[in-house]
Please model this.
Amino acid sequence: QKEVEQNSGPLSVPEGAIASLNCTYSDRGSQSFFWYRQYSGKSPELIMFIYSNGDKEDGRFTAQLNKASQYVSLLIRDSQPSDSATYLCAASGYSTLTFGKGTMLLVSP
Amino acid sequence: DTGVSQNPRHKITKRGQNVTFRCDPISEHNRLYWYRQTLGQGPEFLTYFQNEAQLEKSRLLSDRFSAERPKGSFSTLEIQRTEQGDSAMYLCASSSGQGGDSETQYFGPGTRLLVL
Model:
């Protein structure tokens, strides 16, 4: 059974701070990992993906992957109230995605 | 690029009725996926198509569920004899089909189903 685990939160950070979201996965065969943002009542929106060990930066977002530890993280720098949403981590395998339950992020002004 | 579209956006039905949802993928995307999401959970994979071929189905997809993609473009998901437990958001996603197992899926707005 492939599983992706996330802390459900909420994770509360003040505006301008760094938010750190974490995810672990069970299937060592997973090749790539995706972070989606989901606002309440809306569908998931892709933030970024990562395939290789290490860091990948895209604007205010940095994804980190450690395949040995089966650990993925997303850092959001200079957090804004508009970043308040649920962040979904997903692992790919055999053309489908396995999602975690998501972590709710609350950014207070 | 108009994105993935889904219709209807909302559906309320009575238990025992049949419902059908439609998904139009991003133009020229070969792969199309269906997921179901309930409150507090992440999306759960239901099935996916490569062009018109249905390549994988989840155990979640009971006999009451059927999906088609007859011409390799839009897809329909039908639920027969709906049950209250079918109430969920049904999400469609598409991908180019060029990147193997690691390609990015883009989601549509979803169809929210409520079974009374």
